[in-house]
Amino acid sequence: MYFLVYGFLWLLSLLPLWFLYLISDAIYGLVFYILKYRRKVVFENLHKAFPQKTEKEIRKIAKKFYHNFVDMLVETIKMITISQRTLEKRISANWEILDQVYATGKSVQIHVGHNFNWEWGNLLLPRKTKYKVLAVYMPFTNKLTERLMLKLRTKTGTKFLRATKMQQEFYPYRNTRYMLGLIADQSPSNPKNGWWFDFMGRKTAFVKGPAKAAIANDLEVIFAFIHKPRRGHYRAVFNPPVPNVKNLEEQELTRLFVTYLEEVIQQYPDMWLWSHRRWKHEWKPEYDN
To answer: Which residue has the higher pLDDT, 167 or 24?
Structure first.
């Protein structure tokens, strides 16, 4: 089954991007208007995050989000055969920040949110830094999807570490010069184990792991995001490293990222993954930090 699916996707990936975007437009219509994929979740999230916006404004953001979401799906298929030259043309960034941090002799953590298109960003990143690039991810429950995505995600050298076995799989790299990419806007599985902050106008739980690891290992920390100047083209922005990380409290480092993330979402609201149930946990007084 794997080879049949991969072969079909390989043939699709040979299509030029302009044609794949025509397919994306057709899928968008199906997903948004007919299947209504997670529309209730998306609109509930947007209403919670932007209570001051009108229904028309919310709908506009939602439709742009779905366009970006489906574009990412076809762009992921294109990853099978996309060339380095094409990636270079379509992804730009202030890569010099990474060189400056490498010169410090320290390893680094990159904290990002669920901003499109993190898959293309990962594909180019190992070719733009001297660091060994590591990324933490949650394994897919479907074994076929897991195998396919790992093949695509690791084709340029990134080593993916399962969040469920993070300590074990990170161990071989502990003494190397590494760059660890973390989607740091995850919600903790147990709300009692998270830190709660005001985020997008409401109490929201964030995982503790990224800040704990950065401070414990005396790492440099860079906040980053991706935006979309035009269709099929992305710009990654790396902020200068957070100063004096080792002198920060873990909760304060997380708070800095939460503030940063909200600023990014306010500026590019259609680029964040609104289809996940980010506010599935309701705050209770006993969760106070």
So the answer is: 24
